[in-house]
Amino acid sequence: MEKIHDKKRLVINLLDWYDEHARVLPWREEATPYRVWVSEIMLQQTRVEAVKPYFERFLKAFPSISSLANAKDDELSKVWEGLGYYNRVKNMKKCAQMCMELYDGKLPSTYEQLLQLPGIGSYTAGAVASIAFKEKAAAVDGNVLRVFSRLLVSEDDILKESTKKKFQKIILDYIPEERCDAFNQALMEIGALVCVPNAAPRCNICPLAQDCIGYQSGKAHFLPIKKAKKQRRIEKRTILVVVWKDKVLLYQRPEKGLLSKMYEFKNLEDHYLKKDIINRIGAKHVLTYKKLKDAKHVFSHIEWHMKACLIEVDEPIEEGVWCTKEELEHTYAIPSAFQTYKESLYEWWKEKSYE
Fold first, then answer.
1. pTM to 2 decimals?
2. What percent of the chain has pLDDT above 90?
3. pLDDT tens-digit series, residues 42-55
4. Which of 22, 89, 241, 248 has a CA between 20 and 30 Å from the CA of residue 308?
5. DSSP string for residues in 35-82
6. Catalytic residue among 20, 29, 30, 40, which?
7. Is 40 part of the annotated catalytic residue set?
C-alpha cells in the first residue's frame, strides 16, 4: 500500500488543530519582537512551565532593549538566577547593545539580519522572523526535527547540524505565506503535546496522522534517530558553606569559563577529609562543622559530583564577600548547581534565628 503524504492537507489540519488547542502563553498574547525574542532564548533547554515566571520577572526588570543593553551584570544574573545556561543572558545583553548601535534600539526584521546577532542561531532567527515579523522562515528545533523525522520516516541523526540544515530546506516548502507564524508555533506545539519526546507519540490524537508516513508504516515509535553524545567528564568538588554569624562567604567566579562572573560558595576541586578542609579555610576556631548531603549537577559537558559541609567560624576569614540572607536573595546570583546548599544554609539561619 502506498503511503499517503499530502502537504496541503497536512498544513490545513495542523493549523486547524493549533487554532483549537494552542496553549495560552504570555509571549503569545502580545507577540512583540522583544517579547518573542526573550521567550525564545529562555525556552532553549528549559521547559515552558519553568519559563513563565522568569519571563514576567525579566520583562518587569528589563522592559525594553535599551534597558537590557544598559543592565548591570550582577543585576542581570540575579534576574536570570535559576534558569541555568547563563551564557544565554550574557549574549542577550550583547545582542541588545548591538541593536542599540545598529538598529535604533530595535531588533532587525529579517532572518538574515537576526542571524548576525550574538546568541541568535538559525532556530531563534527563524522563530523571531516568522512570529514577530511574519517572514516566511523555518524555525527548526528539537520538537520540529522529531515531528518531521516521523512524518517523513527520516533516519538521519537529528543531533547533526547537517540534518538540521536539510530539514530547514524541506520545511520551508510547507510554510504557508499567510500564516507562517502560526505554522511554526503549531509544529512546536505538536512536538510538545502530541508527538512527544522520551515517550510513545500520541498518534491516536494527532491531526497529522493521516499524512504521517511514520504512523502509516508503524515506524513512528522508533524515530527520530539520535546517536549517543560524547560522555560527560566527571569532576569531584567539595563545597564549603562558610558562615560567620548571619553572613555567608561567597566568591565571584572568573570572567571567562563555566558560570563566569557568578557567585558561589567556596568550591574546591576534588574531595577532602574534614581535617584537610579545616586546614584549608584557615580559621582560628571552627564553632560548627556540619556535613551536608552529597549532590550532583549536570552541565552540557561536565558533571560535578559534590560533597559539602557547613562551617561556622568565630571571625571573618579570607578575602571574599560576606553576604547576608537579604543580599543572597536580592543581590548576588547563585547558580542552580548550589541550590541544595543554599537551602541548607537557609535552614541553618532559621535554626540560629538569623531570619
1. 0.81
2. 47
3. 998 778 888 899 99
4. 89
5. HHHHHHHHHTTS-HHHHHHHHHHHHHH--SHHHHHT--HHHHHHHHTT
6. 40
7. yes
